[in-house]
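dumping this here so i dont lose it again. seq + smiles for glyceraldehyde-3-phosphate
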Amino acid sequence: MIMPNSRKPLIAGNWKMNMTHLEAIALVQNIDFRLPNKYFDKVDVTVIPPFTDIRSVQTIVDGDKLLLTYGAQDLSEHDSGAYTGEISGAFLAKLGCTYAIVGHSERRTYHNETNEVVGAKARAALRHELTPIVCIGEGLDIREAGKHIAYNTEQLKGSLAGLTAEQIAKTVIAYEPVWAIGTGRVASSDDAQEVCAAVRSTIAELAGDSVAASIRILYGGSVSAQNIGDLIAQADVDGALVGGASLKAEEFATLSAIAAGGPLP
Ligand SMILES: O=C[C@H](O)COP(=O)(O)O
């Protein structure tokens, strides 16, 4: 039986391919200005900028001793060597990253990343003490066919196939229905809960009840300050992977504050 666990919400802002390093500095400073330290007792907030921004973000976070963390949108499954254009987990760890997204649907779609590659990247992240945010999610055809639970369960199992229970315990899972990404068409909170609950049951099968009780499961897809309250209120939704709304400091700070249980900044 999966016992209730008080999981600290995580709000992760995936900037995707937006923001130069100069814009990144301004955005992080703006988020910090709007989100005072008191919120960080109740919510973890992280930004996931493009690789070229990470050094600048590190400088601000370290220099100003911000409680906000940061991560990367991808990493190589390899640690070093002749892999032109790739970025190693070792480099990201040295830059102070906390998280690395793996298997985002945009990587699966545009870069043909398979579950095997996603699993290898998750293991690479863990080798360097980065927390992988492992993304799964169904397309519209699967949702309309009513096969979304089976699809997501299989994608999750495939993506975590090479990981031990101890490694799974150190991951974050993000459920992002592809039809809700960047479309303004958010899944209902019931839809999000249904899949996130299935994810937790699958984690229990793979790694045991205690890991299932403690692992954080995020929802992603058109999350905004308007809908985060309903989403985070669901029993198995522990936060959000936010795209578009994470590029607006005021909205990102507001939705982070809502995830913390308020008050509004
Ligand atoms: O990683 C973030 C997701 O792809 C969601 O993006 P979105 O909030 O712009 O729909």
